[in-house]
Amino acid sequence: MSEITTLPADQFGYGFIPPEYLAGNPHEYAFRDMQSNAASRKWRHLSSEEIETLARNGNTCTDWMQFLVEDPFDPGLIRNSLFAGLVRFGPLEAKYLQYHDFVVPVGVTNSRIIACDIGKDCAIHDCANLAHYIIGEKVIMSRIDEMATTNHAKFGEGVLKDGESEDVRIWIDPLNEAGGRSVLPFADMICADAYLWTIYRDDAKLMDRFKEITQNQADSRRGWYGVVGDGSVVKSCQVVKDVNFGPSSYVKGANKLKNLTIKSSPEEPTQIGEGCELVNGIIGYGCRVFYGVKAVRFVLGNNSSLKYGARLIHSILGDNSTISCCEVLNNLVFPAHEQHHNNSFLIATLVMGQSNMAAGATVGSNHNSRGNDGEIIAGRGFWPGLSSTLKHNCRFASYTLLTKGSYPAEMNIPLPFSMVYEDRKSDTLNIMPAYYWMYNMYALERNSWKYSTRDKRKTIVQRIEADHLAPDTAKELMDGILILERLTGRAWYRAQNDASSKPLPSDAELAAKGRELLEGQPEVVDALFISAEEMEQGKRPVRIVKAVRAWRAYRQMLLFYGIRTVASYLSKYAIHFDYFAAQVPAKVSLEWVNLGGQLAPEAKVDGLRDAVRSGIIDSWKDVHAQYDQWWAVYPCDKAENAWEILRRLTGKASISKAEWNGLLDQGLEIRKYVEEQVYITKKKDYANPFRGITYRNDAERDAVLGKVEDNSFIKTARKESVDFAAMVEKVRA
Predict the structure, then answer these.
(1) Domain extents for the chain?
(2) What pLDDT does residue 369 have?
(3) Could you say which of 249, 525, 569, 631 is the most buried, measured as most Cβ atoms within 10 Å of its Cβ?
């Protein structure tokens, strides 16, 4: 049966809000008047001469009395167009608008406009159906097939309008395809919000409250118009429905835009290009979406890009991220994620940012032969290498590097900064903890620098920790030390002749034995096969390699984190050592949460959950205010965390002035090691003979790559050493 109905001619352009939803408003334009600030406008009716001019120019109107204008108004600038319902124009004068090389005259030609407010000096040409929009000033709209707002428009938010049933609500399903972690998108959602909503699913009251405050912060009344902000350009598009465009938006050649909020500003314009189809989403400030992108049920963070046919579905992507070509389904991805290649695939994951997906990486199988409810969680700095494949469920500590390979079984890798690789000859899974610190310092240090320098956001809602040494990784390193000690002790006991006939000692005893060996008998450890069979759900051996070096590296990394963090805090805030050492609590928890890229003590996160659950916090605005408060005291919290790390490493409840000065000397030595390793690991690219086979000589290589001594980041590393040394002298006790 056809859904096409017939309306009387005199209803065309009217009745936008069904009578039952007027909610006591005197007329259907009440919300529209608020959006247009009608009380301050000086609209007037047309004169008979103006009507005559408009008619002579091929224009028609269902009722010229419903056509209002502001002075100055030149009717000669409107041609061959149809108007219906209440249409209101701002000042209109003969001039041209130019956007790059696109120049169009101010005015309206060959268009059909239904119940719209049009701002000062707009250019609207060849718009076949433009209905129920508030158009800002100096807006260009050209060659649009259909652009309309419905009376129940939600602009990408997961809310309901009056009279709607629950089954039309838009949910996003991150991390789990089966929908067990569904969240409701809203205009100001950031990764921290999505994380709280996604992870704490056992807190039923919290889940209910999140849904409640999301719905309550929206206006459920029907009849709000779509908005095109000042200075925007929308051209050569097919279907645009229920979309809000922020100021200075640029949209060109989109196939379909439906139910969206597009955030944009003159300082951070958002751009959407050819062939894109975007449905049910929130797009952040300064985003770029180009060339055939398909995105459905999504949130795209500020200063992020989707390009070259990328598919983003049921996913939330953090700020400063780029996805090109690939397929990303059912994910929560924190800021600074990179995924550039056509044949990579990411599904049902929580990736905690500063991550990179190599070409051919397939992270997540679909069903594991049973159901589509598997999940993968990866800490900061996750990097699955070329053509690596994973299956659900897996968990990876921060800065895990997976080399090229097909990993057939579930993995749980709790050792941070590790390289995980397969030895196919022996059919062994090898794990090298602290790989980056030992063998690729250039990449490790440059990543922290890169994530900071590439952060071009002007609108900062989500705070981001970019340093690879921070409270989250510090806890993983502390845990990693204990794991290495326990596994080493276990390997030693297993190697004894009578081990098979005796039960193993307790974990504490194993760790104590491992510590003894790692400290005093490294040659014994090197001869052991240190098994970590619990880190893979498979039958093949799992081996920890270079355990002694890794254990020492972990301690060195923690020392440097503790020294540098405390020293930086004392220096930046001009705090005396004695005062700081006295005010740090006797015991500081090492439990922190990576909350969407911002790090926060777990106790504070738990307190926030309590406040939301009890109603003390009753809006997402208040939640975000909490994040800002935490960030304001983050340097102090981080410094206390670092001090606790130093206390545990040294085994001292308090650290004296002399001991602090000694630690500073160690810090100088470690900083020198970092600088040297940055240079050494980069120089490998020049020393490798195969790296030079494509060049006629070294001069050609240097002309293409530059000399290693001239590398900008190597220079940065040297300067950081100088600055660190100066800071150390400043904070000596």
Answers:
(1) 1-148, 153-339, 571-730
(2) 59
(3) 249
